[in-house]
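Hi all, a correction to my earlier message: I attached the wrong file for Lactate utilization protein C. Here's the right sequence:
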Amino acid sequence: MSSRDRVLRRVRDALGEARGGAPDVPRGYRRRLPPDEAEGRADVVALFTERVADHRATVRHVGADELATSVAAALWGREAKQIIVPSDLPFGWLAELDGVRALADTPGTDLELLREVDGVVTGCAVAIARTGTVVLDCGRAQGRRALTLVPGYHLCVVHADQIVGTVPEALARLDPSRPLTWISGPPATTAIEMVRVRGVHGPRALEVLVVED
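and the right structure:
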């Protein structure tokens, strides 16, 4: 037996293949929120709101009939003049815009334009209460990944029924073959000098509108 064979045999033995298969991996982690954290939909939404705020993102609750006005107010509050949006963003979300130019993204939109706009408006695929995370999978109203990685401001619309309690619940709703972007507040990094810098690899500001239908 060669040295290579001996090494591979030890690896197989360690993995349990010599005994007829790989060992069972215990997966006893919690898949849902415990009752003391969330007993119903309202509690899940409230926990999501709390955790998003913990990440130093802005979060507001709006009614479905207030969404267009709230989107406009958020952009006016930042004195935005030009934004970019996914080409399939629902038109009604921008129906109240006045004085803000909305550009529909196309495959030919270059990165320089994404840097110059005042922000981006998108939806999401799912949101997670436990971690205060929104997940985008490039589906409807979300656009390509560059849309939420390059502009300095991201306004994300999250419907209450898109919010789940835990990461396992979110994974059950997601297709792992799609490009997933997980966003937990504005991205930040700490340099060697221990100076925390925001927006190095993503928007410096994240605002979330939770729509209660």
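Sorry for the mix-up. The first helix runs from residue 3 to 15.
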